[in-house]
Design brief:
Layout (H helix, E strand, L loop, with lengths): L2 H22 L5 H18 L2 H17 L11 H15 L1 H14 L8 H13 L2 H8 L3 H11 L5 H8 L3 H26 L1
Helix pairs in contact: 2-3, 2-4, 2-6, 3-4, 4-9, 5-7, 7-10, 8-10, 9-10
Length: 195
């Protein structure tokens, strides 16, 4: 078993214990929030912006709390389940996301407020989402954008992406491959027209 598989197995066991605890006492759901809020917030902020991320991350955990009894640890870990909820919330705000990438393409990244979260988001924005990439991401179909950003921002495996989006495992690779090809082509075109 690889080290990553060991971590995944340990996380799954810990998640199963968290589920048992919050099913006995709903107040224990705060442990889920404490464990995963930062990752969910960072993912949403990378897709939209930090102000929208505050609201959508809170909404993600509110939905998760309401649906907590539907979560089945036998089907996977809490992290992909939560990221699936977050991705669905982002999809509801897809116009905002597309406008965000188009605005980044025009103006570049926003200045940072001096906090760890904002420094991380600003780094991702500045390093990963420069204007050319922002335009290319805005041009991707939503389903492909979801996959590529779960891999890039959430550092998800294909299995976790499949769990988060509720799609077959075999769909993830081709969708990611198409997205990468489109991004490469769009970036190549941008560089060719700039140069």
């Amino acid at each position: 078993m690889t080290a990553l598989a060991d971590v995944d197995a340990a996380e799954h066991v810990n998640d199963a214990e968290l589920v048992r605890e919050y099913r006995r006492d709903p107040d224990r759901f705060t442990a889920v929030y404490d464990r995963y809020f930062r990752d969910i917030h960072r993912y949403i902020a990378g897709r939209l912006d930090t102000q929208v991320a505050d609201d959508i991350a809170a909404e993600t955990f509110l939905i998760a709390f309401r649906k907590r009894d539907r979560f089945d640890p036998a089907r996977g870990a809490l992290r992909p389940w939560l990221f699936g909820i977050a991705t669905n919330q982002v999809a509801q705000h897809r116009r905002v996301e597309t406008r965000h990438y188009r605005a980044l393409a025009r103006t570049g990244p926003e200045p940072a407020v001096d906090s760890h979260e904002n420094r991380v988001v600003t780094w991702v924005t500045a390093e990963g989402f420069h204007p050319h990439l922002a335009r290319a991401l805005a041009g991707l179909p939503q389903k492909e954008r979801d996959v590529v950003l779960l891999v890039a921002l959430g550092q998800f495996t294909h299995d976790e992406v499949a769990q988060a989006l509720g799609i077959p495992y075999g769909t993830v690779g081709p969708r990611l491959s198409r997205a990468r090809k489109k991004l490469r082509a769009a970036l190549h075109e941008e560089v060719s027209t700039d140069g």
